[in-house]
Amino acid sequence: MAKSFKSEFVKFYKEKLEPYGFKKVKGPQPYFARLVNGEIVHIITYITSRTNNPGHINFELCCGIASVYRKRIRFNVTPASNSYCMEAMTDLMKLKDHYYVISLKDRIFYDAEYTEETMQMVLEKSLIDAKLIIEQLDKYTDMESALEFFMKHNGGFTVTFSDLLSDSFSDEEGLYYARKEFDAALIKKCFLDMKKDVELIEDEYDKELYKNNLYNEYEVEVIADRKKFQADEEQYNEGMKILQQRKEDNLKMLKEYKVI
Length: 260
Description:
Blueprint: H1 5-17, E1 23-24, E2 32-36, E3 40-50, E4 57-67, E5 87-88, H2 89-94, E6 112-114, H3 119-137, H4 143-153, H5 174-177, H6 184-198, H7 204-231, H8 233-256
Antiparallel strand pairs: 1-2, 2-3, 3-4, 4-5, 4-6
């Protein structure tokens, strides 16, 4: 019987990630996760794709951060289906110090091709990348620091303040950051850092594209939507109830998935 890469991945990384607090998520999908400080979920898994070489598959580690305040933490779908809130190793390292890709010349490819015969060798080599991923995830241990990750790696798409009470986006942290208690200065700091980074982009076309979006639309909309939500007392109070319910539901779900 042909070896399954998924089963080999799980078998290999179950032992390697355990000392870092990661547990194999219960179920058929190859997710490893850990809960930090009762609210931040660090996730490690992988994605594969076809190559031009017959009999070869492309493999790359990927990771993500979620919180117990998210509408749904999705472990019941494949990593490829969850790509909206997962970051491939290549992109994680490309963006680790910046909000934007500053120079394509610095891009390093961490993915690898494998065959049935080379699975184990590829997994062994990927352990170096796994440690780099954990090193990055270790920086984000609470909702304050996680804001930077969401803004940096998800382009802010998991931190929006429009239609906060709708069920349109399952991977959404905006409701937490809309809390009046959350320091708005941290949101402004992210935008300030983004403005510094965008000036460093070497490609002039990309620089103008991101600058136009950042200065003319994104920041203005985020701040205006947040204030509008907070000003509507009935909507705001309903949102805070939903936020508490999400936390309870997600913690229950994490217990069912054997993460905690």
